[in-house]
C-alpha cells in the first residue's frame, strides 16, 4: 500500500495518512458532494461502540484553531486535537472487494477492536 504524499500545514505530527486509493476515493466523493471547495474530510474519534471508541468520518468546511490539517494531493483532512492524539500514526485505506467496499482505519494505538471492527479501545 503506497501512501499519498502529505503536505504538512502547521507543526503537529500526522494523526492519519491516506493511501493513494483512499485519497482518490475521497476526492471522487468530494467532487460529487458539491461545488464547495472548502469541504474537507474530517476524521474523528468519538465515545461509543462495544470497545469504547469509534471512528467518525464526514465532510466539513469549518476548521478550529487547534485542528490538525493535512493535505493529501487534492484532499484536505481535518482532525480535532483530541482525536489526533488517539489517531497518531493511523492510516486510512479504501477497499473494494467481493465482500463490499469501504474505508478502513488501521490504528497502531488501538489495544483491541470489537468483532465487527467498528470500535476500539
Strand-helix topology:
Elements: E1 6-9, E2 16-18, H1 20-33, E3 40-47, E4 53-60, E5 68-72, E6 75-79, H2 81-87, E7 90-97, E8 100-106, E9 119-120
Parallel strand pairs: 2-7, 3-6
Antiparallel strand pairs: 1-5, 3-4, 4-9, 5-6, 7-8
Short overview:
This protein has 121 residues and is α+β, with helices and mostly antiparallel strands. Helices cover 17% and strands 41% of the residues.
Written description of the protein model:
17% of the residues lie in helices and 41% in strands. It contains two helices and nine strands; from the N terminus they run E-E-H-E-E-E-E-H-E-E-E. It has 121 residues and is an alpha+beta fold. It starts with 5 loop residues before the first strand and ends with a strand. The model has no long low-confidence stretch (mean pLDDT 84). It has one domain (6-112): HesB-like domain (Hypothetical Protein Aq_1857, Chain: A, Sandwich).
- The total of helices stands at 2
**What is the beta-strand fraction?**
35-45%
| Approximate helicity band | 10-25%
Output mean pLDDT. Answer: 84
Q: Are there runs of 5+ residues with pLDDT below 50, and where?
A: none
Q: How can the largest sheet be summarized? A: 6 strands, mixed
State the separation between the terminal residues, measured CA to CA: 25 Å
Full CATH superfamily name? HesB-like domain
Structural class: alpha+beta
Sequence of secondary-structure elements: EEHEEEEHEEE
